[in-house]
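Mods, move this if it's the wrong board.
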Amino acid sequence: VATLTSYHFDRTKGYNERNFGLGLERSFGDASVSAGWWNNSRSKTTLYGLFGYTPWHLGPVKIGAAVGGVTGYNCGAKVCPAGALLVQNDWVNVAVTPGAVALQVKWRF
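Not the wrong board. Structure tokens:
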């Protein structure tokens, strides 16, 4: 997967929305695991590990949630908890958090 961009709901903070990064994702039916890195909204490197579960299907689109851990944010620990609503298909992941929407593209090898 390649992390590309995000859109932040609070437009006054001046967040970085060019969130380039790379990772790996492995799907197991409605479940997936992913790990990688991206340049976060505070222009720091974020390492991530996530578990996704997308039990609802609308044609080729799967809907669910992802949970896991991320680094590079101020939560009082080295690894911060993370969660998002997840919309995905074979080529795209869209993650919706309380503060932003993020986009990843995928390719298989």
